[in-house]
Design goal:
9 helices, 72% helix, binds NG,NG-dimethyl-L-arginine, MCP_dom_sf, transmembrane transporter activity, membrane
Length: 288
């Protein structure tokens, strides 16, 4: 099994993560808290209250976990294509796989990454939702002191299964949308590249950026539900499942709830995924 794809997936994921984390914090807050009037209000309040560091809350764990998560996504994707089409990454420009195969491989990568992503994503969301400024003498300490304390507290208070809260919604979000993600990337690359050649850097950037936007646009409704289910344990709010969370969110806030965070998610998705695909492609070309 070729391992370069796993390593390239890890490095490219880390680059994308650092670039996109501040946008991600604003998105998570808009999706799970009702105190903000919009993106601008959330950015201003976060900055005033928590300084620039507020936007980077919860980033250390994803940085550590991206090694596993993104390498599983890209590694499983590429190796599933290898199993389906018997072509390696190098041969795929000359013998492009069908879009059905690309979709299937993307869905498999998305499905497999959920197992690694679920606990890390839960901890990220809980830490991002802590709006207290950094500890000052006399001010109440935040609920979680950091990622490890957060993981231990969840295990103690909600049981080890608590770490997988929202995992069903995450699986429903990621399995089809990662199929869409890779199909969009492949389609846009092929449209802008003469047959048999490798896509230029500009093509990769644009195709990666739009693949990110489209897949996140489709993923946003389930992303909202996933984030709410992840926060539910903390707020002692009990949802009976994904459908119950959907129904109760719509009842209280209307259908617009499914589109919370869509604008900021799209603004984040373009640069993040452009950088992910560019670094992934170049690392693989560089290694031969
Ligand atoms: C719609 N979904 C779930 C995705 N496109 N997932 C791929 C993740 C790529 C990158 N880490 C990001 O956060 O955008």
């Amino acid at each position: 099994m070729p391992v370069e794809e796993f390593v390239a997936g890890w490095i490219s994921g880390a680059l994308g993560l650092v670039l996109g984390h501040p946008f991600d914090t604003v998105k998570v807050r808009l999706q799970t808290q009702t105190t903000y009037r919009g993106i601008f209000d959330c950015v201003v309040k976060t900055y005033r209250h928590e300084s620039l560091l507020g936007f980077f809350k919860g980033m250390s764990f994803p940085i550590a976990s991206i090694a596993v998560v993104n390498s599983v996504l890209f590694g499983v994707y590429s190796n599933t294509l290898l199993a389906l089409t018997a072509t390696s990454h190098r041969e795929r420009r000359a013998q492009p796989p069908s879009y059905a195969h690309v979709f299937l491989a993307g869905c498999t990568g998305g499905f497999m990454q959920v197992y690694c992503l679920a606990p890390f994503d839960l901890i990220k969301v809980r830490l991002q939702n802590q709006t207290e400024p950094r500890a000052r003498p006399g001010s109440p300490p935040p609920r979680y002191r950091g990622p490890v304390h957060c993981a231990v507290s969840i295990c103690q208070e909600e049981g080890p299964r608590g770490l997988f809260r929202g995992a069903w919604a995450l699986m429903l979000r990621d399995t089809p949308t990662l199929g869409i993600y890779f199909v969009t990337y492949e389609w846009l690359c092929r449209q802008s590249t003469p047959e048999g050649q490798s896509p230029s850097s500009a093509s990769v950037l644009v195709a990666g950026g739009f693949a990110g936007i489209l897949s996140w646009a489709v993923a946003t409704p389930l992303d909202v539900i996933k984030s709410r289910m992840q926060m539910a344990g903390l707020k002692h709010r009990v949802y009976r499942g994904v459908l119950d969370c959907m129904a109760s969110s719509v009842r209280q806030e209307g259908l617009g709830v499914f589109f919370r965070g869509l604008t900021i998610n799209s603004a984040r998705a373009f640069p993040v995924n452009a950088v992910i695909f560019l670094s992934y492609e170049y690392l693989l070309r560089w290694w031969g």
